[in-house]
Design a protein that fits this description.
7-stranded mixed β-sheet; 12 helices; alpha/beta; about 350 residues
Length: about 350
């Protein structure tokens, strides 16, 4: 197996120069850099990352803990995280906390024991143990998709956060349905305790208020952010003495569940019930009718999470930031409108909170 000394001899440079090229620790003349890279390729040299981590106390790896990796939304986030990590020379270790606080604590501890340089975590509905563990061990971390209320300004740990706008896009869906004449608009909400659930409920209520419609607690049912829960929630709404004429589903998994409930009851969309959903996905336009949806910038969320984490690693004491990215309103026909020629942007915006 080739060594760094072998690379240095082949390139006609010192071992220190080879190290600077491979670790990007000092500027090197372009022709010298290319000679080293050519020697690395010719000899098949592979750096000993374990030995390097013992010297630098860095493994150049990131831990990613997100639930429901099979969900297309989180799969696209993963793609964004992986691309950004590789771009900056970092590897990725992935774990699924299953949205369970106890399991979340275990997988975060396991990632920490693998000596990742930092973590990106989509926190559960009860992240107290997570925050306590990361803070106690001073683990650089970014919270992804769901925001957590962390005390600031007391010298404690600094956690950056990145998520999509939730309240305003949900209000937009409700306003759109109200504009089509609907007066009983139901919501299949997500798992209680998640910030995304709270924010989408807030948006739902704001949309009703903006349309001059009363809030009826019977029209809001939690689907626990999963397909089975979405199916049960939609079935409960359809069983009301006066069921809704329109429905907003608060994530893509619950949309699938709701569609099953509608199919089993021979409820046609949009003939019998108009449907709008939070989360767009690759095959949403293949449904008949196509699903009117809010599309989250999933890959951008993953990319931004990595960049926030790398900024934190470079400057551990900088002020923490919460970044919200805009969504897009994808206008199809499940809401009862004719097919639209183009997509219009959602009434949301990117903002960075101190």
């Amino acid at each position: 197996m080739a060594t760094m000394a072998d690379v240095a001899r082949s390139a006609g440079v010192s071992v220190a120069t080879v190290s600077h090229v491979l670790n990007d620790t000092r500027p090197v003349l372009p022709r010298t850099r290319q000679a080293v890279l050519d020697a690395v390729e010719e000899l098949g040299y592979t750096p000993n990352t374990l030995a390097r981590s013992l010297v630098t106390s860095r493994t150049r790896s990131i831990g990613l803990a997100v639930s429901a990796i099979s969900n297309p939304y989180f799969t696209e986030i993963l793609q964004g995280v992986e691309a950004a990590a590789l771009e900056h020379g970092y590897g990725l270790l992935i774990a699924d906390p299953h949205d369970d606080p106890g399991h979340e604590r275990k997988v975060v501890r396991l990632l920490h024991e693998r000596r990742v340089d930092g973590m990106i975590v989509a926190p559960s509905a009860d992240p107290r143990d997570l925050v306590a563990y990361l803070g106690r061990h001073r683990v650089p971390a970014v919270f992804l998709d769901r925001v957590v209320d962390v005390p600031k300004g007391d010298g404690g740990p600094r956690f950056d956060q990145v998520c999509a706008e939730s309240a305003e896009p949900t209000a937009l869906l409700v306003s759109h349905l109200a504009g089509l004449g609907h007066r009983r608009i139901g919501l299949v909400a997500g798992r209680p305790g998640l910030s995304t659930t709270r924010e989408r409920i807030t948006g739902y209520r704001h949309g009703l208020a903006a349309a001059g419609l009363p809030y009826d607690e019977r029209l809001l049912v939690h689907g626990d952010s999963e397909a089975g829960g979405g199916e049960r929630a939609a079935a409960a709404l359809l069983s009301l003495a006066v069921p809704p004429t329109a429905l907003v589903t608060a994530n893509n998994a619950m949309t699938i569940g709701a569609l099953r409930a509608l199919r089993d009851r021979n409820v046609s969309v949009p003939g019998d019930l108009a449907l709008c959903c939070f989360d767009d996905f690759a095959w949403a336009d293949l449904f008949s009718p196509g699903l009117t949806a809010v599309a989250q910038p999933s890959r951008e969320l993953g990319d931004r999470a990595v960049r926030l984490l790398l900024e934190r690693l470079a400057a551990p004491d900088r002020p923490e930031r919460t970044v919200r990215l805009p969504c897009a309103f994808v206008h199809r026909t499940s809401c009862g409108c004719p097919e639209q020629p183009r997509q219009a942007p959602a009434q949301a915006f990117e903002r960075t909170l101190p």
